[in-house]
C-alpha cells in the first residue's frame, strides 16, 4: 500500500514491527498439541499473571476465545444476557447458536453500557418451558460503543448481581488493555469481576495473530479440550505466541499514544458542523454524518479517494480507529481531510463513486 494512505479502518491492520519479527524468528518451539510449546506456555503464564487468573490459553482469534467461553459456561438450551451492540452477538455469526445451541438475550445499553437495573428480574425460573439463564457477557472497551470504557462500579454491580444469581460472568476484553490504559485501573482488578476473560493480541497490542482466554484452572482445562474440538489447537505455535508475548512486553505502555491520537481526530471531527461525534474514551472514534452529506458510504468513499481509509458502520455512522501504525501527524492530516470532505459534500462537491457499503 502506498505510504500516503492513512489506514484507520481498524487496529487489526498493524504489521509486526522489526523487533517483533526478530522475537518470532528466535522463538523456541515445540508441538503444543502433543505436549507443549515453550514460547506459548510462557505467553499463557504471562497472560494469566497480567489478568490475575490461575490460567490462560492461547487462541487463534478473539471470536474463538469468546465462543469457547460460551461453550464451557453454557449447555444447549441455555441463554446468556448481553448488550445488544456487543461483538459476541453481532459479529461472530451467531456462533453461540450454530456451535453450542445457546441463545442470547439482548439489552440496549448507552454506548454499550448496561445498568444492573436492566438485568434484575431477568433470570428465568427453572421449568420445562423455559431456556435456562446461565451467563452474563460484557465487553470492555465496547467496540460499537465507540471504544467506551465501562464504568468500573457499574461492572462490579452487574458482576455481583450475576454471581448472586448463580450466573457465570464472561468479559469480552478484546480491548481490555485500552480500558486499563484509559481508566488507570489494573487489568487484574477488572478481571476479578469475571469468571473468564478474553483478550486480543492482534488489536491495539499490534501482534499479527491471536487471543487468549483466562480463568480458573479447571475452566481453562475445559477450554483446551474445546479448542481442539473447534479446530483451534496449534502445533509449533510459539512462532506466533512469541509475537503476542513481545506485544505484552513492548506495546502496552504505548496504548496511551493511540488514545492521544484519537483525541486529535475527535477534535477535528467536532469542528465540523456536519458531523456529530460520540464521546471518545480510547482509540475508537465514531461519528454521525448529517443527512445532507448523503450518508456514511458516500463519506467513506470520498475519504478513500483522498487517502484516508475508514469503515462506514451503519448508513449514517463512520468509525475510525487509531493504532500502532498511525502517527500523530497522520491523524492531524486525516482530521483535516475529514473536515474538508464534510465541507465539500455539504457544498455538493463529490470526487468518488461509492463502490460498496461496508456495513
Ligand atoms: C475484534 C474483536 C473480537 C475478536 O475478533 P477476532 O477477529 O475473532 O479476533 C472480539 N470482541 C471484540 C469487542 C472485538 O473488537
Automatic annotation (TrEMBL):
<keyword id="KW-0663">Pyridoxal phosphate</keyword>
<comment type="similarity">
    <text>Belongs to the threonine aldolase family.</text>
</comment>
<feature type="modified residue" description="N6-(pyridoxal phosphate)lysine">
    <location>
        <position position="203"/>
    </location>
</feature>
<dbReference type="InterPro" id="IPR015421">
    <property type="entry name" value="PyrdxlP-dep_Trfase_major"/>
</dbReference>
<dbReference type="InterPro" id="IPR015424">
    <property type="entry name" value="PyrdxlP-dep_Trfase"/>
</dbReference>
<dbReference type="GO" id="GO:0008732">
    <property type="term" value="F:L-allo-threonine aldolase activity"/>
</dbReference>
<keyword id="KW-0456">Lyase</keyword>
<dbReference type="Pfam" id="PF01212">
    <property type="entry name" value="Beta_elim_lyase"/>
</dbReference>
<dbReference type="InterPro" id="IPR001597">
    <property type="entry name" value="ArAA_b-elim_lyase/Thr_aldolase"/>
</dbReference>
<dbReference type="GO" id="GO:0006545">
    <property type="term" value="P:glycine biosynthetic process"/>
</dbReference>
<dbReference type="GO" id="GO:0005829">
    <property type="term" value="C:cytosol"/>
</dbReference>
<protein>
    <submittedName>
        <fullName>Threonine aldolase</fullName>
        <ecNumber>4.1.2.5</ecNumber>
    </submittedName>
</protein>
<feature type="domain" description="Aromatic amino acid beta-eliminating lyase/threonine aldolase">
    <location>
        <begin position="7"/>
        <end position="290"/>
    </location>
</feature>
<dbReference type="InterPro" id="IPR023603">
    <property type="entry name" value="Low_specificity_L-TA-like"/>
</dbReference>
<dbReference type="GO" id="GO:0006567">
    <property type="term" value="P:L-threonine catabolic process"/>
</dbReference>
<dbReference type="InterPro" id="IPR015422">
    <property type="entry name" value="PyrdxlP-dep_Trfase_small"/>
</dbReference>
Amino acid at each position: 500500500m502506498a505510504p500516503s494512505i492513512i489506514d484507520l479502518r481498524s487496529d487489526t491492520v498493524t504489521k509486526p514491527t522489526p523487533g517483533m519479527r526478530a522475537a518470532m524468528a528466535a522463538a523456541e518451539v515445540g508441538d503444543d498439541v502433543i505436549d507443549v510449546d515453550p514460547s506459548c506456555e510462557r505467553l499463557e503464564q504471562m497472560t494469566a499473571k497480567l489478568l490475575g487468573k490461575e490460567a490462560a490459553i492461547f487462541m487463534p482469534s478473539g471470536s474463538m476465545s469468546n465462543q469457547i467461553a460460551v461453550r464451557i459456561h453454557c449447555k444447549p438450551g441455555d441463554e446468556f444476557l448481553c448488550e445488544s451492540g456487543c461483538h459476541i452477538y453481532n459479529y461472530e455469526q451467531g456462533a453461540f447458536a450454530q456451535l453450542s445451541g445457546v441463545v442470547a438475550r439482548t439489552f440496549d445499553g448507552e454506548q454499550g453500557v448496561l445498568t444492573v437495573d436492566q438485568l434484575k428480574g431477568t433470570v428465568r425460573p427453572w421449568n420445562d418451558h423455559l431456556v435456562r439463564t446461565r451467563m452474563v457477557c460484557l465487553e470492555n472497551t465496547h467496540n460499537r460503543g465507540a471504544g467506551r470504557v465501562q464504568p468500573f462500579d457499574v461492572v462490579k454491580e452487574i458482576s455481583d448481581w450475576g454471581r448472586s444469581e448463580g450466573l457465570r460472568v464472561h468479559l469480552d476484553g478484546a480491548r481490555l488493555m485500552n480500558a486499563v490504559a484509559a481508566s488507570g485501573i489494573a487489568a487484574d482488578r477488572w478481571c476479578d469481576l469475571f469468571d473468564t476473560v478474553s483478550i486480543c493480541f492482534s488489536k491495539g497490542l499490534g501482534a499479527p495473530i491471536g487471543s487468549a482466554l483466562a480463568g480458573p484452572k479447571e475452566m481453562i482445562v475445559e477450554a483446551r479440550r474445546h479448542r481442539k474440538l473447534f479446530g483451534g489447537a496449534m502445533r509449533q505455535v510459539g512462532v506466533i505466541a512469541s509475537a503476542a508475548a513481545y506485544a505484552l512486553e513492548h506495546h502496552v505502555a504505548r496504548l496511551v499514544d493511540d488514545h492521544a491520537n484519537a483525541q486529535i481526530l475527535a477534535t477535528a471531527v467536532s469542528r465540523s458542523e456536519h458531523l456529530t461525534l460520540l464521546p471518545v474514551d480510547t482509540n475508537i472514534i465514531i461519528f454521525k454524518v448529517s443527512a445532507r452529506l448523503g450518508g456514511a458510504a458516500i463519506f467513506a468513499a470520498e475519504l478513500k479517494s483522498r487517502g484516508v481509509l475508514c469503515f462506514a458502520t451503519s448508513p449514517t455512522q463512520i468509525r475510525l480507529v487509531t493504532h500502532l501504525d498511525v502517527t500523530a501527524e497522520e491523524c492531524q492530516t486525516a482530521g483535516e481531510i475529514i473536515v474538508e470532505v464534510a465541507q465539500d459534500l455539504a457544498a455538493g462537491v463529490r470526487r468518488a463513486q461509492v463502490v460498496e457499503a461496508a456495513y
